[in-house]
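ok trying this again, last paste got cut off
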Amino acid sequence: MLLVSHRTEYAHDWGSHTSCTHLRIEPLPRESAEALLDVLLGNDPGLDTLKRLLIERTDGNPLFVEESVRALVETGALTGDRGKYLLARDLPAVHVPETVKPILTAPTDRLPPDEKRLFEIAAVIGKNFPLALLLAVAGEKVGTVRRRLDHLQTAEFLFETRLLPDLEYAFKHALTHEVTYGGLLPERRRGLHAQLVDAIETLHRDRLGEQIERLAHHAVRGEVWEKAVPYLRRAALKAAARSALREAQVWFDQALDGLAALPPSPSTLEQGFEIRLELGPVLVQLGEARRRLEHAREAEILAERLNDDRRRARAHLALCNAHALLGEPDEALAAGTRALEMAGCLGDLRLRILAPTYLAQSHFYRGDFERAVELATDSLAALPADWAQEPFGYSPIPIPVYCRLWVVHSLAELGRFAEAARYEAELLRLAGPTQHAFTIGEAYNAASWVHLRKGDWATARSVIEHGIAVLRKGSIAAGLRTMVAASAWVLAQFGEAREALTRLREGEALLEWQEPWRWRGVLMPYQSMGRAALLLDRLDEAQRLGERALTYSPFRQSDEAHARHLLGDIASHPDRFDAESAEAHYCKALALAEPRGMRPLIAHCHLGLGKLYLRTGKRPEVHQHLTIATTMYREMDMQFWLAHAEGGMKESVRTL
């Protein structure tokens, strides 16, 4: 028996021999490719994304799979031994291994010059390419191009992917496309990309919006920067609107790089300003508040260079938002106040609505909840009815929703639950139709804190789970950690220990991944997880989480009050009883909560002190603190906590 292997394009006349049998070797199906990669790489879960990428890039060709793995090992992207590899760094790029490039280039090198030229133009267009665009750049007759494409299909380089509304082709192998593209001289590549920009603009002049990503891509690769920047910006805004946040960030970053390649002018300065402000909300949703601050500062510099007061005010608003998120309320208030003053001088209604809203956020983080409610409701009162759905461009959340967020959060801290319920209903009603994951998620996050503060665990659970589902679907990092942590607390409250522990671990992973030093808004998740750990009798863990919350509390003293109360409850636990420490934490929490009007927390502190003094035998103080707690819980209609306080009163009567 003679066994011979050859590629499909090899011509022979053996088929006429009866003794010749043809066996066509197809690429591995996905299941088999996955099995091969399990053998080569191993089963570490951290490799799952890499495996999917390798299968997509190699089209299931086992030789290319093996050589790609070998290249990743040789470059240090993978460490370990065969079948037991681990990623040594973030997901690496999978390039064509040098060992298989000759296999890929040999067939295309044998193509006739005219076909090879057409093949190269197609490679520049992309792995998928429409016939109309290929014709526009090739500059040849339709019949001639179709004949050459038919031959390339017969040779199994290409295949038709779509007939209607426009005929479209695709490269059969992703690696063939990559090698063909990479083999072009840089000057030729740039020239073809620039031609493609002109061709797309001509072919789709009436619906360029559908081609924005393709236009941006070719304009960048063709280094047509004066066109690339506006196309990149539009592509970024389009991605942000559908919550494709990482994609939007890449487009925005490329737009800023493109601006740097253009000579400075008023136009480039204005575009640079707008792009930085538009990028800000994307960074907020990704939890990258530090970068948000950096871009806001750069925007402020550009506004000064342009000597534009309206842009100065907008930059101050961005600074106000960034400083607030980073736990720097004094800086936030200073920037927001400047923006409000400038809005008054300019007579700009939009800025006069936005500035108090951003200041409300700053006052909330500073613990001045009454002022936050006042500012946010003032903005709502000034908002024209026909502006309810109009985008403002400064925040990823519409202003009518954004104002109500801070009203609801603040009223929850103040214990004004009846008022909060009305704004909560409006908040959820307005957020839903936006179909924007971050907006809806933040609305449910705010609503959940009303019920958490009140002790209405069943409603809190329903609201939290809905919010988590929305944020997961939209891949929104910001907000998810807070809601996952709150879920752990609620599940523990219901006694669902296994589920609560799962959420507790997920919450910690999210916080670790989020790098809290970049974003100081991590106190509430730590407090929620500390509460969950305490309810699960994981006291060492609860102590660690409570102290971690306290580490960040100087940035927000209202949050320090919650952290102190948590630590007081931990020190009061029978298995870790430390009366002196518990008393100190409760008293400190009370001292922080009282001037801020945090009535639910004030009541909790009195309840904690009453129960503590009951155990330590301080008779007069027991009745005093439990009476205050009971009265406050009844006034705020906090039935769950009222039952606890009344139980404490009964126990005190029996004991004393």
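PB: full thing came through this time. The chain has a mean pLDDT of 89.
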